[in-house]
Structure prediction request, 509 residues.
Amino acid sequence: MSRTVSTTTDDEASDRTVEPAPAPDAAAPAAATPSAVPGRPSVGEVVALARRTFDAGVTKPREWRVAQLQALRRLLVEHEDEIAQALHSDLGKSLTESWVTETGFVVAEIDHALRHLRSWLAPRRVRVPLSLVPGRAKVVREPLGVVLVIAPWNYPLQLCLAPLVGVLAAGNAAVLKPSELAPATSRVLARLVPALLDRDAVHVVEGGVPETTALLEERFDHIFYTGNGAVGRIVLEAAARHLTPVTLELGGKSPTYVSDDADLPVAARRIVWGKFTNAGQTCVAPDYVLGSRATLEALKPLLVEAIRETFGDDPAESPDYGRIVDARHFERLTGLIDPVQVVTGGRSDAASRYLEPTVVEVRDPGDPAAAIMRDEIFGPVLPLVEVAGLDAAVDFVNGRDKPLALYVFTASDEVRRRFVRDTSSGALGFNVPLAHLSVHGLPFGGVGASGMGAYHGERSIELFSHAKPVLSLPTRPDTTAVVRPPFTDLKRRLIDRVVAPGRRRRRAS
Ligand code: NAD
Prediction:
């Protein structure tokens, strides 16, 4: 294999690289592109190496794919502690939450892929029409080439590596761009990935907007982007220049409707869990709760109690409660809270970026001044919004962008049927938020404004492969003679009966 290139800025990685990266220069202008840093391979060189490796056929054998997935598994299991430290430093995540929602999540995705890889990669036989017997047809999954994965900061490990599982299982080379807003996790990835995986085929490019912009200049065979819709548009435009297919895993406001017949204590506990995991910085967190006046009134004390049960009397002291990613998001979130509307919570500490689990009551959700109902909250603030009943809840959901997730707490089959039939969302969860992500057989992705494309499990293989139709026809007997001119009477009869039946009247030729 050719020599290694890594764009890591971590000193520890320098002994693993042929061209050691220089230590980061604190005084360097933020706009410096990777190619402008002496001694560090440019983004173009990184992508070219990934492409040469793919073109050489290195990534195609199943053995290579299995070895990479096993290496990725080792990376996660053997380095769990340093990964957890990085996640704690970036987002205040506890050890257990890091395992459940990040490291262990990817391990489960790998194990599922390793268990099923052989059958997923097996060519699928397809029946040929009578006119092509004794031909044989099959669909072969072939890798696309070099895939760019651009990840966000909120699950900075999972959202970089879970797509990578599919990229590798499908036999592609990869360039990963972790989020600069989770710098500790980005550094760990930049150090461990080239150390444990095939360094020619799998690359990590650290950095922010300039680096991502430089990457988007390059030609990839697929771009997988997770993040906000504004940047999603930038990615899509850049991809259009190369006709590169794109998956956009976006966000938005995910509503939760609590029906009058719901088991309210269970609903309160599960909503609190779904909303305040990772301090609300979860793309599929319940953004707000819809319910009738009576249901919301009954739910309020139960939510207060569920927060206390989950995070104790003072969530600031809970080892299981996270922190806001940075000062900008902290200020944005505290600015959303109108003290008059607070049901519980609202306390904050800018120095530690702590924002208490907060429930607020929104009296006029249509008020253009109510920013809390305009944009995705993406933090630990839960608005309660009164609706008249089931029809009003369905209308409320349908009157807005199609959400990434929609949750309904109900005991009624009729309510369930109504939401399945009359609403559209990336996913629909009854009586439980978030959990659909952990079902390997369920595709994960958005619809409309919440994204395009889906992955997880076998859907990832589909996403990062081309389903190539392969038809093979013996040369004798030469059955194609029937469809080749000149069209004699005999041929016309055969065409009408065997090749393309269904015509009502036969015309002359
Ligand atoms: P972010 O700021 O980390 O950005 C995501 C990526 O885009 C980063 O790698 C960043 O470097 C890059 N980027 C930022 N600005 C850019 C620009 N101008 N040009 C090119 N690249 C740029 O993360 P974020 O966007 O704040 O993430 C939060 C959003 O992501 C929320 O809306 C959330 O709902 C959504 N999200 C969706 C999913 C999902 O699976 N659907 C998962 C997590 C988050």
